[in-house]
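General statements about sequence and structure are easier to judge against a single worked case. Part of our work consisted of pairing the sequence of a single chain with a tokenised description of its backbone. The amino acid sequence and the backbone structure tokens for this protein are reproduced below.

***
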Amino acid sequence: MKITVNGNGLEIQDEVKHIKGLIDFLELEDKPLIIEHNQQILQKEEHEKAVLENGDKVEIVHFVGGG
């Protein structure tokens, strides 16, 4: 399946069916995230329910500390 993540094309395996699976696939599970799925911001509890489909657009913002 092909999706767009942060403006870049990404091909993911068919077993990645939800946003939570995408987060795990990208190894971002331990980071505070804001996820936008097809122009809709998701609450964290929605990550396991939001189904990915071919052609979806996902924006992921994660915070980086610094000084």
